[in-house]
């Protein structure tokens, strides 16, 4: 009889999926238009303002008043969609593509229950999650627990995706930071709206993968205790892009040429920039690590109620190594780590019940 290591199978499946999606070179890679020039300089300065040493966490956030329309309703629940102008700083709005200036949100609520007797969780998008559908499926069964679901469409995704972008492959490194900063600002404004306008007594924020990183940042910066639920999330974007599967989907040569062009005389642009300046791929990777270190959640403040923070990691994740998840828990004493059996991709489909249980438990700790 042949014994099969199921964990190894999940790990290998992650890499097979990643190979088909990223290493075959059939599609456009990440950062195919380079670093982003002056946009990257602006983003680096503004993202640093989120860190505790800057003492500039900007609360209350910009207020929003979404324009709502009802998509459907039944005797027990209602789904609405809303639109509001992004709450980014005006300098960032100028850097965002026009398609991303208006934020979109779906709001699934139980009926016949007042907000003060309900909870609401804001669900943030993982890489490639362009629609509301998957996150609404995750939140839908929570209605019976009187937990509403609010789903934010990220900039550069869905109807907010710029026309020249292919799928989830962001064109510039600056786009990744801009997506994150805008998502954080918009999520904070939505939480403020839920509390001050809608009247919810308990709130939370969750997300899978990239959305989990953003959820951790939002939960960290919120001035009062909320449930914070990063699922299958690394402690930093450095992990997937510089150590994990996404490094095979990154346009390293373009980044090298772009970096070289910034350091050479404009009269020599026709020459081999990388050769002229001696910039190596490893130096480019070091530069990307430095930029993406701005997304390191372990540098953010401990949330106001760390007991209401539950990380969920996968035991055989080919994208996010175990040590990265444990770094999050180590940085936030009192938080909890739970493990589901499987890989990164398979856990998206197989463990929604575990994610829902974490949401319920975290809200109960508030």
TrEMBL record:
Signal peptide: none annotated. It comes from the Eukaryota. SUPFAM superfamilies: alpha/beta-Hydrolases. Gene3D superfamilies: alpha/beta hydrolase. Pfam families: ABHD18 (PF09752). InterPro entries: AB_hydrolase_fold (IPR029058), ABHD18 (IPR019149). Coiled coil: none annotated. This is AB hydrolase-1 domain-containing protein.
